[in-house]
Automatic annotation (TrEMBL):
<dbReference type="InterPro" id="IPR044505">
    <property type="entry name" value="GlgX_Isoamylase_N_E_set"/>
</dbReference>
<dbReference type="InterPro" id="IPR017853">
    <property type="entry name" value="GH"/>
</dbReference>
<keyword id="KW-0326">Glycosidase</keyword>
<feature type="compositionally biased region" description="Polar residues">
    <location>
        <begin position="11"/>
        <end position="20"/>
    </location>
</feature>
<comment type="similarity">
    <text>Belongs to the glycosyl hydrolase 13 family.</text>
</comment>
<dbReference type="InterPro" id="IPR014756">
    <property type="entry name" value="Ig_E-set"/>
</dbReference>
<dbReference type="InterPro" id="IPR011837">
    <property type="entry name" value="Glycogen_debranch_GlgX"/>
</dbReference>
<dbReference type="Pfam" id="PF02922">
    <property type="entry name" value="CBM_48"/>
</dbReference>
<feature type="region of interest" description="Disordered">
    <location>
        <begin position="1"/>
        <end position="20"/>
    </location>
</feature>
<protein>
    <submittedName>
        <fullName>Glycogen debranching protein GlgX</fullName>
    </submittedName>
</protein>
<dbReference type="InterPro" id="IPR013780">
    <property type="entry name" value="Glyco_hydro_b"/>
</dbReference>
<dbReference type="InterPro" id="IPR004193">
    <property type="entry name" value="Glyco_hydro_13_N"/>
</dbReference>
<dbReference type="InterPro" id="IPR006047">
    <property type="entry name" value="GH13_cat_dom"/>
</dbReference>
<dbReference type="Pfam" id="PF00128">
    <property type="entry name" value="Alpha-amylase"/>
</dbReference>
<keyword id="KW-0378">Hydrolase</keyword>
<feature type="domain" description="Glycosyl hydrolase family 13 catalytic">
    <location>
        <begin position="154"/>
        <end position="568"/>
    </location>
</feature>
<dbReference type="InterPro" id="IPR013783">
    <property type="entry name" value="Ig-like_fold"/>
</dbReference>
Length: 708
């Protein structure tokens, strides 16, 4: 049905998507294998289809049309014709209303039903009633001033756009759990006072829940099930999601906080061959997805989510690149964390660190300056690629996470590993001049135990997910310190608090870029659920007042993190981009045993060694930083360094207590390190004109041997 009231003519083939102008709107969509494409227009309710208009095709397989009189807010979708043969990887079906991959706004809700099925049994069912509609929309380019914070000053706060503020009572109720809630002055003050320079938001692209979740009364909370790559998720908006997301970014920028978004370009919500037909599958399945070469009926599933985006195809690559540019130019975001990033560097022969995607990104004038963070693995055989990305990429360092967890729960033989990861993971990243900031250090993230649960549960407790506790990681490297879960035992609770401080102090003062998981500052617990992806409720929403506090900033962990990050900003060591070695002209780093002497080979390889000192001397600033770690169950008498250059050692921070803060201890004196505790001391130094290194041949050999 073509309505006579619409004046139509061939349109432009670029840009793809719906582009409104003064006189009308241009529509363009790519499909190589389609035989016919119809544009469907809907009334303002989204329920009634008012016109179907065939598009023109050009020689590059772009279907296009210009419609006079159609403008902003017009609702639309597509119906695409062609062969229907799932065994050959073809799912064309005009009965399925399809979303424009380049839609800039969506209207209405998605509802699961048989009409979405790609199965031949449901071929004739029309899906339009259960589909959101695309909405013609345009936003001006972002014009705010970006903070442009260098990596060596970056401190990341990973959080959920809804869960971060849903229960933050000092934010107006109508704004809690929204983009504007994140931009509220009280939450910004919370972040700034903590020491945060960037928030990293879990996926904010429009997404839907997997079909089985609503049947269980659950939903996809994390958002790793993308429906569209250009539109902000509607549920996080107060009224208009596009404007509010742009406003959120602008306000955060004014406060000096960058915005990084987690993007999922490895798979989509259409799932495997039994999944729904929503967009790309019905437009050109063989273009947009990787199919098994010996059987096109099945998808390559290197993601574990049913399908894998075919990033090697020029049009799939263009889709991803256009999306990234759009979020930078229109929404003003400062960077991206790429979920299962190894997928993006993969072709039929495996992972390539110089894959076309990486090269295209590197030369793009819009994107070459943004922050790029890889989750450096996927589910393929060669999927684990930590350390194999190239500058300017940064990488989530899960080996750092596991090593620090193991050390602080008292595992044996951890000193060498702990030292080299604390010092920046040079064995992974110091390749071809990569920076010490290549490592994104973290102890906890959205996936896995929260920090509080890491020290309260030995086993996962995921029954609320209704998968009989089979889901989630089993290798958590956690400990409950005597009781599984919550307890009234004051000694255990004190130990758990100290254990969290140990992990946080290590994170804040390690070389690399620290990333805090939102809620760590108030000991947020998920009741031992280490896979709360489907818990859009109080399990996941940060409980800012769980401990009876009037304000989150009163929590001892909040105050501890704030102090630790202030210490980090005080020392130039953490503002360097290069790795520190024995021949550094400015910094001297020395590893000490409990006797205040250089670590020897026997110390490094003592399986029962749990105590370590890290001494950094800054010749230029005349400062010394001393960190002491005791991960044993016994108190340790630690002899402080006694070089003549050191003035008195000032205790700056301790996970044990704050009773001795600012106390001065003379060089050479013994300091009692309580069991499971970490300490930070500083001193002013006077060094001769020519730098005197505190290392010797055995020390250098041992550190090199261990990869520190």
């Amino acid at each position: 049905m073509v309505s006579a009231r619409f004046a139509i003519r061939p349109g432009n083939t670029s840009p793809l998507g719906a582009t409104p102008s003064e006189n009308g709107t241009n529509f363009a969509i790519f499909s190589e294998r389609a035989t016919k494409v119809e544009l469907c227009l809907f009334d303002q309710s989204g329920h009634s289809e008012i016109a179907r208009i065939p598009l023109y095709r050009d020689e590059q397989d772009i279907w296009h049309i210009f419609i006079r009189g159609v403008g902003q807010d017009q609702l639309y979708g597509y119906r695409v014709y062609g062969k229907y043969n799932p065994k050959k990887g073809c799912y064309f079906n005009p009965n399925k209303l399809l979303l424009d991959p380049y839609a800039k706004s969506l209207f209405g809700e998605f509802s699961w039903g048989n009409a979405h099925s790609a199965d031949e049994v449901f071929w004739q069912l029309d899906s339009a009633m259960d589909m959101p509609k695309c909405k013609v929309s345009t936003l001006p380019y972002y014009t705010g001033t970006k903070p442009n914070i260098p990596w060596h000053k970056t401190v990341i706060y990973e959080c959920h756009a809804k869960g971060a503020t849903k229960q933050y009572t000092s934010i107006p109720e109508e704004l809690r759990g929204t983009y504007l809630g994140l931009a509220h002055p009280n939450f910004i003050w919370h972040l700034k006072s903590l020491g945060i320079t960037a928030i990293e938001l879990l996926p904010v692209h429009s997404f839907v829940s997997e079909a089985f979740l609503p049947e269980r009364g659950l939903s996809n909370y994390w958002g790793y099930n993308t429906l569209n790559f250009f539109t902000p998720h509607l549920a996080y908006a107060h009224t208009k999601q596009e404007r509010e997301f742009q406003q959120m970014v602008s306000v955060l920028h004014e406060a000096g906080i960058e915005v990084i978004i987690d993007v999922v370009f490895n798979h989509t919500a259409e799932g495997n061959e039994q999944g729904p037909t929503l967009s790309l599958r019905g437009i050109d399945n063989q273009t947009y997805y990787r199919l098994q070469q010996n059987n096109f009926a099945y998808y390559v599933n290197d993601t574990g989510c049913g399908n894998t985006l075919n990033i090697s195809h020029p049009k799939s690559l263009q889709l991803v690149m256009d999306s990234l540019r759009y979020w930078v130019q229109v929404y003003g975001v400062d960077g991206f964390r790429f979920d299962l990033a190894s997928i993006l560097g993969r072709d039929q022969d495996g992972f390539k660190k110089h894959h076309t995607f990486f090269q295209t990104l590197a030369q793009d004038p819009v994107l070459k300056g943004v922050k790029l963070i890889a989750e450096p693995w996927d589910l393929a055989i060669d999927g684990y690629q930590l350390g194999n990305y190239v500058a300017p990429w940064r990488e989530w360092n899960d080996q750092y996470r596991d090593t620090v967890r193991s050390f602080w729960r008292g595992d044996t033989s951890m000193l060498p590993e702990f030292a080299r990861f604390f010092h920046g993971s040079s064995h992974l990243f110091e390749k071809k001049g990569r920076s010490v900031t290549s490592s994104i250090n973290f102890i906890t993230a959205h996936d896995g135990f929260t920090l509080a649960d890491l020290v309260s549960y030995t086993n996962k407790h995921n029954l609320a997910n209704q998968e009989e506790n089979r889901d989630g990681h089993d290798h958590n490297l956690s400990t409950n310190w005597g009781v599984e879960g919550q307890t009234e035992n004051s000694e255990i609770n004190a130990l758990r608090l100290r254990a969290q401080k140990n992990l946080l102090l290590t994170l804040c003062l390690s070389n690399g870029v620290p990333m805090l998981c939102g809620g760590s500052e108030v000991a947020h617990s998920q009741g031992g659920n280490n896979n709360a992806y489907c818990q859009d409720n109080e399990i996941s929403w940060i409980d800012w007042h769980a401990n009876g506090l009037d304000e989150p900033q009163q929590h001892p962990l909040y105050q501890f993190i704030s102090r630790a990050l202030k210490l980090r900003s005080e020392f130039s060591l953490y503002r360097q981009s290069h790795f520190i070695h024995d021949d550094d002209p400015r910094f001297s780093v020395t590893w000490l045993n409990e006797h205040g002497a250089l670590m020897q080979d026997s110390d490094w390889h003592n399986p029962d060694g749990h105590c370590l000192g890290y001494l950094m001397e800054d010749i230029q600033d005349d400062k010394a930083l001393l960190l002491l770690f005791n991960a044993s169950s016994n108190n340790v008498m630690f002899k402080l360094p006694e070089q003549e250059a050191h003035h008195c050692w000032r205790i700056r921070l301790s996970s044990h207590s704050n009773e001795r803060d600012d106390e001065c201890v003379s060089p050479g004196q013994m300091l009692t390190l309580s069991s499971y505790s970490a300490w930070v001391l500083s001193s002013h130094i006077k060094m001769p004109a020519s730098k005197q290194h505190a290392t010797d041949t055995s020390q250098t050999f041992n550190l090199t041997k261990q990869g520190v």
